[in-house]
Each structure stands twice: as structure tokens, then as C-alpha cells.
Amino acid sequence: MAEIMVGTCGWTDRALLASGWYPPGHRDTEGRLRYYAERFSLVEVDSPYYALPGPGTTRRWAERTPDGFRFDVKAFSLLTGHPTRPSALPADLRGRPRDAGLLNEVWTRYAEALAPLRDAGRLGTLLFQYPPTLTPGPEAEAFLRAGRERARDWPFAVEFRHPAWWSPAQAPSTAALLTDLDATAVAVDTAQNLPTSVPPAAPVTTPRLSVVRFHGRSPHWGTGTKEDRFRHTYTAAELTEWLPRIRALASRTDELHLLFNNCCADAAARAADLLRSFLTPIPHQPGTPITTDHPSG
Prior knowledge:
Blueprint: E1 3-8, H1 14-18, H2 29-39, E2 42-45, H3 55-63, E3 70-74, H4 100-119, E4 123-130, H5 138-150, E5 156-160, H6 171-180, E6 184-189, E7 209-214, H7 226-230, H8 236-240, H9 243-250, E8 255-260, H10 267-277
Parallel strand pairs: 1-2, 1-8, 2-3, 3-4, 4-5, 5-6, 6-7, 7-8
């Protein structure tokens, strides 16, 4: 049975800070992370998608969290083929052509920045979230393989945003590709029956880790502002739908990460707490193994 970890996609979101979730005395930079890590064993770090962090920053993250805590870290936007503003690049790289050489250099700096987390045993996985413009085909496969080769010595998780990757006809090929790449397939929960809806496929493609990201069930998924896309309050019924999938994933992997990306205010933290209440025993401390049996009643 897997070690199951539950958390949220970030701990410094403005809406979370404004919600009052952090009590007085825990609202400074260090206090927030320490308070968060007392309540959850896992967090996703989204900021490296927008700008490369420094090793000093990630070293402080490691120092402020207990043994067994995990950081899942999103890849920088250029590495996943997203539009990237020149100002997001380090100053000395802004004039370079956007070719394989630049990607290699960006990867090198990204890896150097995350080395303190890996060295401290805090790194869960790198999260390569690919844009909706990446559709199945030979060019996409070559791009994925090039990215995996750069990160060949690192844990590597892949989330697709184009629905075709997990369509019934394509899903077996997608799972086989990620298995061949030794990459974790990231399962997602979103609103269904929309043109942009990604099916909630949850294959196991590496025995070490499975990841589920709960994005909320907004009817504006794929459109509108960030708040429109991710605003959702999960109900108990919606989360219990996932218990059979969670049970199946937990039986086949060493570690299972369940992350909430819904907003706003403290909606993600409340949803994480709710799902955790369905998993027994409740993991109060980071690294506590849990089962996925739903409590009676």
C-alpha cells in the first residue's frame, strides 16, 4: 500500500493569505511554510513555472519543513513549450535564440536551483504540465523525449492539457509512452463534458509515484480568468467518487500525491482536509502511511 500524501498547489496564494487560514504569528514568509507543513505532508510549488528560483530559496524551503515532507515542483514554462516572456528568463539569456541550446541551459539552471530539495530528501517530483497546444503525434513525442532526457536522473511527472491524450482511442498509447519514459502520468479532476475537459484517466506508469491534481469542476475550465477556471468548492460526494481510483493507485505505487488546485480563499485547504478525512488513519504527521478505505457511515 502506498504512502499517501495530501496537500495543496501552493501555500502563498494571495486569496489563501487573505482568507485568514494562517493565524496571527504565522503570516511571515517563514511562519507560513512552517505552519503549512505542520498540517500537510505535501505541497506543489508553482512559482518556478514563472521564473527560475535560486538555490538559496529552495534551501530555505528544505530547512523550514520536517523530514518526510515533499515538494512537487512545476517546470519552468519554456521547458514545457508554454509562451515565455523574455523578462522571465535570466538576464544573460534573454537575447538568445529559443532553440535546444537555450532549453539545455535553462534546464541546467532549473536543476541547480532544485538540487537543495533533492539533496535534503524533500523533492517529490518535477511536474511537467504541457499546454493544450501539445497534441499527440511524432513531434510531441520527440519533444517529450527530449525533455525527459534532460531530466533523466530526476523524478518526472507529466500532465497533459489537451483531451486527446487520454481519449479512449489514444489512452493506451499515451500510457505506454509515459511508461517507456519512466514518467508519472498525472491524473486530473476537472469538469467533464466541456470541449476542454481532460478525462479522469488514472493509469500507473511508474511504480514509484502516482499523482492526482484536483483542479475543481468549474464550467469555465479552459476559458476565462484563473479564478473562473479554478473556482470550486468540493463536496463530499465529488471526492468520494475518487476513492476507488485512489484505492487502485495506492495498491500499485510506492507513493501517491493528492493535490488540490481549486480556488478561491482557503477552498483548496478545506478540500484537502475533507479528502484526508476519508482516508484512514488520518496522516497527521508528514510521511504517515494511510489506507484508502472509506469510513463506515
